[in-house]
Specification:
This is MARVEL domain-containing protein. The chain is mainly α. The chain is elongated. The chain has 6 helices and 5 strands. Strands 3-1-5 form a 3-stranded antiparallel β-sheet. Strands 2-4 form a two-stranded parallel sheet.
């Protein structure tokens, strides 16, 4: 006989890990690491995140001195649709994970709220969040070298994927595990 409570607790732990990994991926400045800091006209940060506040200014990053274009300002001013899609997917996934985590904890603490419907919806929400994170990571992988503008595009091709990307990939992997655990919890709950 399976124990829905044990699966639900393991599910909550895995959703919490997914939540932390997605938050770290979303709010850290490590999506792109630049191999060089300046090409003479544009100063590049050491790395950049998905939001403008996660892009170290060239002065903070030890970039080129003198005049020239600040990469952070230029990049965020001209972000492309695929970059916006990555941000939107991760933000929506983060919101879904937040709701799922709170809802899961409430259903475990308050037994009357632990219904078959809640047990069935939670793994679906986790699956949806996993798909969104996977889509964002895949889109970023495919499009990471493309950027309008010769100098910025050249720097993109000479940059590498940073640690924040790998945090998102790990969040997706943990999300798949959480979905499976949630499915087991729902199956156990449905049977007993």
């Amino acid at each position: 006989m399976c124990s829905a409570k044990i699966y639900r607790i393991l599910y909550i732990i895995s959703v919490f890990i997914m939540f932390v990994l997605t938050a770290a991926a979303l709010f850290t400045p490590g999506w792109r690491k630049f191999n060089r800091r300046s090409d003479g006209t544009i100063r590049f940060p050491g790395s950049s995140g998905l939001f403008s506040f996660l892009c170290a200014s060239s002065n903070d990053a030890g970039g080129a001195t003198g005049g020239g274009v600040d990469y952070c300002k230029e990049w965020f001013k001209s972000s492309e649709a695929w970059e916006q899609a990555v941000v939107i997917c991760l933000c929506v996934a983060f919101a879904i994970e937040s709701v799922t985590l709170v809802w899961s904890i409430i259903t475990v603490v308050c037994s009357p709220l632990d219904t078959k419907g809640a047990s069935a919806v939670l793994p679906f929400l986790t699956f949806l969040a996993s798909i969104l994170v996977m889509f964002a990571a895949t889109l970023y992988t495919v499009k990471k070298d493309t950027k309008i503008g010769y100098n910025i595009g050249k720097a993109y091709k000479q940059s590498t994927i940073g640690y924040s990307f790998y945090l998102a990939v790990n969040a997706c992997s943990v999300g798949v595990i959480a979905t499976i655990l949630g499915g087991f919890a729902a199956a156990c709950r449905g049977g007993g």
